[in-house]
Amino acid sequence: MTCTLPGTTLKTDWSSPQAADKVLSDIFAVKGLVLSQVSHLTGVEPYVIQNWVKRGFLSPPKHKLYSRRQFCRIVLINMLRESLHMEQIVSLLAYINGHLNDESDDIIDDTVLYDYFFRMLQGHLSPQTVTEDFQEPCPGARQRLTQVLTVMQTAYEAAQLQQKTAALLAGLFTDPAK
């Protein structure tokens, strides 16, 4: 089944457990992506991404190139903003990864976080199941991770329900003769 990766414009086959990792590995076979490429692949306007960097929601690109890790942070923010306010997203990500513009204090790499999230959605798995291989860098990290993944899953499902509601509502007002 081909679907769009959450938070992106990228189509992939959801039947493969490594679908998200495969797509991202192919994209990041080079050193990184320029802003226009990130914008195209996420559907987020370049000025919005630059604003997120200025506000400290992610570290700045190096030599004008965004890494896979930065790309995944952008994708996560983009996906979550469909149902959460930006302050809530920032608080959620800071809960798991401290200062958002400093990757050295992260409990989990955003690439791994996105992969866990995708695998949860894809296989209808619990946060506890999908994070079985997670190595805690500090006590309590696994609990924080499962809490964040639970919130992310709930926010994603809420966004899906909002979209379904909008489509159903629009269908009520469609001319049946057409």
Decide which structural class fits the backbone: mainly alpha
Helix segment count? 8
Helix content: 55-70%
Total number of strands: 2
The helix/strand series, from N terminus to C terminus, equals EEHHHHHHHH
Which strand order does the major sheet show? 1-2
What is the number of independent domains?
Answer: 1
Biggest sheet, open or closed, and with what strands and sense? 2 strands, antiparallel
Rounded Rg: 17 Å
Beta-strand fraction estimate: under 5%
Shape verdict? globular
Average pLDDT for all residues: 92
Q: Low-confidence parts lasting 5 or more residues at pLDDT below 50?
A: none
Distance between the termini: 30 Å
Write the layout of secondary structure elements.
Layout: E1 2-4, E2 11-13, H1 19-27, H2 35-42, H3 46-54, H4 68-80, H5 86-97, H6 110-123, H7 127-130, H8 141-172
Antiparallel strand pairs: 1-2
Helix pairs in contact: 4-6, 5-8, 6-8
Molecular structure report:
This protein has 178 residues and is mainly alpha-helical. The chain has eight helices and two strands; from the N terminus they run E-E-H-H-H-H-H-H-H-H. A two-stranded antiparallel sheet has the order 1-2.
Q: Descriptors for this entry?
A:
two-stranded antiparallel ribbon, globular, mainly alpha, 178 residues
Outline:
The protein is mostly helical and about 180 residues long. The chain has helices spanning about 20-25, 35-40, 45-55, 70-80, 85-95, 110-125, 125-130, 140-170, and strands at about 1-5, 10-15. The protein is built from eight helices and two strands; from the N terminus they run E-E-H-H-H-H-H-H-H-H.
